[in-house]
Amino acid sequence: MTTMDARSMGTSVRRIEGPEKVTGTAAYAGDTVAAGTLALHPVQATVARGEITAIDTSAAEAVPGVVAVLTHRTAPRLGDTGDPEHLVLQGTTIHHRGQFVAAVLAEHAEAAAEAARLVVVSVDEAPSTTGFDPDAEAYTPSALGNGQPADSGQGDPEAALAAAPVVVRASYATPMEHHNPMEPHATTATWVDGRLEVREASQGVALARQTLATLFDVEVGDVTVRSPHVGGGFGTKGFLHAGTVLTVLAARTVPGRPVRFALGRRQMFETVGYRPATVQHMSLGASADGRLQVVAHDVVGATARYKEFVEPAGGSTRSMYAAPHRRTSHRAVPLDLDAPTYMRAPGEAPGSFGLECAMDELAVALDLDPIELRVRNEPEVHPETGLPFSSRGLVECLRTGAERFGWSSWERAPRRRLVDGWWHGVGVGCGTFPAFRMPGSTADITFTGGRYVVAIGASDIGQGARTVLTQIAADALGVDVGSIAVEIGSTEVPVGSFAGGSAGTASWGSTVVEAADRFRDKYGDAPDEGDHADAATPDNPWAEEYAMAAHCAQFAEVAVHADTGEIRVPRLFGMFGVGRILNPALGRSQLQGGMVWGLSMALHEESVVDPRFGEVINHDFAGYHVAANADVRVVEAEWIDEDDPYVNPMGAKGIGEIGIVGVAAAVANAVYHATGVRVRSLPITCDDVLTSGLL
User: Fold this and answer.
1) How confident is the model at residue 6 (pLDDT cuts 50, 70, 90)?
2) Which pLDDT score is estimated for 4?
3) Residue 244 zone, left/alpha/beta (φ > 0; ψ -120 to 50; rest)
4) Which of 65, 406, 411, 671 could form a disulfide with 107 if both were Cys (CB 3.0 to 4.6 A apart)?
């Protein structure tokens, strides 16, 4: 096992690209517009399901400045990636409202937009279902979004529930939510002599290149994708969506001229995925002393009729608490909507709401402290696989977090603290997120100009990959960070896995360490100009021996106005077990950002679909509310000292997603503690507490 000098890791090295970002010189995908660039404006379906019978483009083509109008009749043919979302302008079938059915290319954006409005699309509309009904006919999916089986379990949960002294059965609902990163999706594409150059807002340039090469039947080496800076992704930029394909498709019809398409905020609600709605049926059975006998988590979730993606909301329940009888199941309800996709902590974020709220209800039924209930059900090994944990700091997170939060100073009974017309209460919610590394990356290290140039196709989506990889490389090579230059964000450097699953640092960092080891073995500590070494991502020899995951305990204090039902969250405190924190400043920022999103999930976020038309009606920031400055009060993130030598050479676990997990449950549980009102659906609104009649 590699031993690293931790001279840089663990220190708050300043974000390398920070000056560029704060001065506005960091170029994002939609920022650079070369001379001669054509603007693309799409024509989108206005029905949720149907067949195109005719398209009249004559009026659009007559608009001055219009270069071309693409339809399914005129667009180039595409290869098959196995993803129906990529088959843009390849047929007449409409799968969802907002689907691209034509596109206009023009010299100016205004001309393109005007012409797009003049395209007449005749459609034979078909009956559609766009409203999620958890009681509708559902099917068992082939697999969950994380690749796990839909169903899992052991023992006889129903018989055990019938025999359990204390039983809690309840259903919890989470809504459709949209990612909404600050930077919308944007693509600029140019075809020159059969080669494709793309500037793209992407979480994975290598995967984007491979997908485009397949779609357009060219060699992978003939495609270049650049994405030096990404203004947030949260999953929606992990895979190519229809807008990118449409842009590259259009550019192929005008060789030599760049084509640019930047999605508007409304189009972000129509074409690039979302977190699907779920209803989670929880059944917990326990002995009188609070030992779980049964954990059953049965999920019904929405998916798209034309493309399956099923939120793995029950997945984390498989590892959280010990119980001899267990069941998790997932059923999918197909809808005529755009396809859902990965969204920050897919599965864990909504799933922790159901499980952790149910655990709180069980604690009330047992008259047991919610923290003590969780501690009593801490598993010694993974409850389903039987593997030992490489490290598992959940109990320490609970104990230490409770002490720092001041948990013991609050009475356990609800509705006890009224201050200046506000009911105050506290709640806790726990969570987990897997720790793993993705294969497929390669890192090059070259000594040139007195510096070590480290090249790997990683993606910095705001998490600070440039900075942390610099620190990892510096420690692995035994030099200071000023001697390292990191090159990422392009297919012009060696392949890197995409930024997702909180596995970026683990995957790229392990690869960089492997390359550094080879470099030092070859050249020692005094290399010459041009000395070079490279390495691929090493296998983790412990991957099959241990269960590896991050854990957290989230604490929330809420205040609910006794007259209006207004809910405020004056304090959030998260305690995390995430291995070694490589950069405390960046790590705390990541964790706090996730917690703020959890707060937003708890109180604000909900995409509302009009079931008549299949349209998200609150498709902008005026209608889709996210937590703003006034909502965010004290948000503190701390971590325990967790030594885990098995996860990777750095001992680090991913932190990009664990921050959101458990927060919504902590807030909901605190609302109950403050008011005595149990809210089992998100987002929690003043109506939920006012209509209870308890205020």
Assistant:
1) low
2) 63
3) alpha
4) 65
* Cα separation values, 425 from 8, 114, 560, Å: 41, 54, 9
Task: Give residues with Cβ within 8 angstroms of 650, minimum separation 6.
Answer: 4, 9, 472, 505, 506, 509, 510, 513, 579, 580, 582
Using a 10 angstrom Cβ sphere, with 0-12 exposed, 13-18 middle and 19 or more buried, the burial of residue 665 is buried
Does 447 lie in the same domain as 421?
Answer: no
Beta-bridge partner residues of 532? 446
399-420 pLDDT, tens digit each: 999 999 999 999 999 999 999 9
Whether residues 526 and 403 fall in one domain: no
Q: What is the pLDDT of residues 76-99, one digit of tens each?
A: 999 999 999 999 999 999 999 999
Half-sphere exposure of 137 (CA within 13 A, CB side): 2
Closest CA to 9 of 475, 658, 695: 475
Query: Which of 508, 535, 562 represents a domain boundary (last residue)?
Result: 535
CB 205 within 8 A of CB 490: yes
Other CB atoms within a 10 A radius of the CB of residue 180 amount to 20
Q: Within this chain, do residues 230 and 206 fall inside the same structural domain, yes or no?
A: yes
pLDDT at 85: 98
As for how many domains the chain has, the answer is 3
Residue 370 to residue 360: CA distance in whole angstroms: 6
Cα-to-chain-centroid distance, residue 311: 11
Asked if residue 294 is part of any domain, the answer here is yes
Instruction: Assess whether 560 and 460 both reside in one domain.
Output: no
In residues, how long is the chain?
A: 695
For residue 36, being part of any structural domain is answered with no
Indicate whether 681 pLDDT > 70.
Answer: yes
Please check whether residues 521 and 586 belong to one and the same domain.
no
Q: Is 334 among the domain residues? A: yes
Q: Which of 268, 283, 305 is where one domain is finished?
A: 268
Q: Which of 659, 639, 663 is nearest to 651 (CA)?
A: 639
- Find all residues with CB under 8 Å of 620, minimum gap 6, and list them: 265, 266, 269
Residue 499 lies in a domain: yes
| 562 & 667 share domain | yes
Q: Would you give the end-to-end CA distance of the chain in angstroms?
A: 59
With beta carbons less than 8 A apart as the criterion, state whether 616 and 609 touch: yes
Q: Which two tokens stand for residue 165?
A: 């002294």
pTM, two decimal places: 0.97
**The tokens of 286 are what?**
């326990």
121 and 245 inside one domain: yes
The whole-number pLDDT of residue 325 equals 98
Q: What is the pLDDT of residues 661-677, one digit of tens each?
A: 999 999 999 999 999 99
Residue 534: how many other CB atoms lie within 10 Å = 17
| Cβ atoms 71, 57 nearer than 8 A | yes
The identity of residue 360, as a single letter, is: D
Question: What residues are labeled active site?
Answer: 657
Tell me the one-letter amino acid at 405: F
335 three-state secondary structure:
strand
Q: Tell me, what's the pLDDT at 33?
A: 84
Provide the CATH number for the domain around residue 262.
Answer: 3.30.365.10
**Which residues have CB under 8 Å from 676's CB, separation 6+?**
414, 415, 694
Separation of alpha carbons 385 and 364, rounded Å:
30
> Do 381 and 423 fall within a single domain?
yes
3-class DSSP state for residue 273? coil
CA distances to 144, 278, 434, 619 from 310, in Å: 5, 10, 18, 23
**Cβ neighbours of residue 4 under 8 Å, at least 6 residues apart?**
475, 476, 513, 649, 650
Amino acid letter for position 114: E
| DSSP output for 568-585 | EEEEEEEEEE-B--S-HH
Helices 663-675 and 584-603 meet at what angle, rounded to 10? 50
